[in-house]
Amino acid sequence: MQAKKRYFILLSAGSCLALLFYFGGVQFRASRSHSRREEHSGRNGLHQPGPDHFWPRFPDALRPFFPWDQLENEDSSVPISPRQKRDANSSIYKGKKCRMESCFDFTLCKKNGFKVYVYPQQKGEKIAESYQNILAAIEGSRFYTSDPSQACLFVLSLDTLDRDQLSPQYVHNLRSKVQSLHLWNNGRNHLIFNLYSGTWPDYTEDVGFDIGQAMLAKASISTENFRPNFDVSIPLFSKDHPRTGGERGFLKFNTIPPLRKYMLVFKGKRYLTGIGSDTRNALYHVHNGEDVVLLTTCRHGKDWQKHKDSRCDRDNTEYEKYDYREMLHNATFCLVPRGRRLGSFRFLEALQAACVPVMLSNGWELPFSEVINWNQAAVIGDERLLLQIPSTIRSIHQDKILALRQQTQFLWEAYFSSVEKIVLTTLEIIQDRIFKHISRNSLIWNKHPGGLFVLPQYSSYLGDFPYYYANLGLKPPSKFTAVIHAVTPLVSQSQPVLKLLVAAAKSQYCAQIIVLWNCDKPLPAKHRWPATAVPVIVIEGESKVMSSRFLPYDNIITDAVLSLDEDTVLSTTEVDFAFTVWQSFPERIVGYPARSHFWDNSKERWGYTSKWTNDYSMVLTGAAIYHKYYHYLYSHYLPASLKNMVDQLANCEDILMNFLVSAVTKLPPIKVTQKKQYKETMMGQTSRASRWADPDHFAQRQSCMNTFASWFGYMPLIHSQMRLDPVLFKDQVSILRKKYRDIERL
């Protein structure tokens, strides 16, 4: 019995081995024949799939390595289609894996900082006005360098804005022109600006040449093709967008309630066929003709009548009934649907009009999304949920609507109102990536005054800036440093500068006094200066120029600066009161001597006046208090051309400082109590009597006003009629009840 079992087991084992060798041979032969067919078909340019394998194919234990600039497929043995090959060779995909760490050379920025070089314009090359504005904004910025060896970033002079082959602005043979540039280096450390890419009918995001490792500052870029922390998404702007300055937003006041005549509006083209047609074709479902007015027209293009549908005539008639500007200024929300491309001109138009944008462009990387929190200024919708848009915006509380509208105004004026601001925002974002240890945080970018005016090189601590005391729960500074600008020799102990020094030193808020000696005569001996309870530091100006009074001296240890001309006459009481007022307005200039500006219609230029009226727009820095950050901003933000003009004229430095502070704060300065004798006393001083009486001095200040306004692109000065006096000032009550009683006696 046992022998039979053993024979049966041996027979079964033998049968299994025979079957195994048989099927293995079939598989082996099938594999060899399949390989031969593949070789044969490969020689003939064809590929035919073989029969299903008996055993599954397992992937390799280690997948092959793909370089960053090659298109990666799921299986390297799978052939690539012609479309995939085109995409792999196109510029928008080839560097898709680029990041700052892999495609940017940081060593170029370590030696000379963040400097930008613009290639010289080549002969015969036409540049569109919009691109000329971009290049002019770069060349006029503090980042510009004409020396390529000092550059950290390079910008082409070849016009890359419009890459639509059907556009008259399209630049031909751009690929060969770019490759011939000796500094191109496969695009490394280069920035390419682009507004339009692709052409009819699919409008792809291909710019038409190999960008290599260059960064893109691109409008209408999709999140799929956007390379985070490498590319910069910019807004689509028209050729009429101002180069500098730009108009202010239309929300002049905090309108309460925030609701307007229309809840939701749109007026624009409707595309009957092709990409971008679905969303706009469906808008009529939401239009009610009352508070939701969404108007489209198909009357555009050469062949619109060939493709017109049954709604075209009715839509065109309704379209003509409404004025777009009237709708824009009287709407709470503005619809921003995608067009042929993801971006739209309606986006910037809505921001300026304080009309909250309702975005309907799935996959659009919103402008400057790396730093701007768009949830604070816009409603991000979904094209697939169009019918839910009205009910969604109706559910937003009025407080939230007001906050959204106010944020649209801040973002418009801070980053979008001019080509210059768009370009500078782009450059500042790139600079923050390079110098991460001093980069701006989200609060700086999304809160007044914005990232362009808050320079992180000054400090990485928000408490060192005058704009964030409330956010950080900090109290304003309790001490100030008096900086006296001395330009005449010290010949008598009765000179006004010595009396001024003593009066400032007696203030309970004074921490120290700095005398800036800009006189041609040697420094007086130490015993010539009066003894005071606070330190007196005398600094001899190296250049002896007017702008040196606003240098960010390390000797200034307090945040508050009391700026004084040597012939100013102020009492200790006046100094104390002015400083207590400044503590409530630390971002503004607070002081005594006021001046104003006006528009001269006959001469079509800005005028300057020193007449005593109830209206003013400047507080002169001969007797004013401000934050010391403005010294740094004056020295590092303003161009050398304006400071050189001030130094050559030995005039207008106080006007330029007022321009700067008003441009940053969007607020007027604050004038405090003015004594009657102030004007006569100022005029009576020998050191500056000739300057005030000199008609050329006044004419120079008129000229300065217009030069400064031209550089800023608009007039930043703001008129005010507010004057702050002490409590009970001039009231018919006992003098003992008044804190600053001495002011009334002056």
UniProtKB/TrEMBL annotation:
The gene is Ext1. Pathway: Protein modification; protein glycosylation. Pfam families: Exostosin_GT47 (PF03016), Glyco_transf_64 (PF09258). The chain crosses the membrane at residues 7-28. It is found in: Endoplasmic reticulum membrane. Keywords: Disulfide bond, Endoplasmic reticulum, Glycoprotein, Glycosyltransferase, Membrane, Signal-anchor, Transferase, Transmembrane, Transmembrane helix. Its main location: endoplasmic reticulum. Belongs to the glycosyltransferase 47 family. Residues 480-729 form the Glycosyl transferase domain. This is Exostosin-1. Gene3D superfamilies: Spore Coat Polysaccharide Biosynthesis Protein SpsA, Chain A. It is a single-pass type II membrane protein. Residues 111-395 form the Exostosin GT47 domain. The keyword NADP does not apply. It comes from Mesocricetus auratus. It comes from the Eukaryota. SUPFAM superfamilies: Nucleotide-diphospho-sugar transferases.
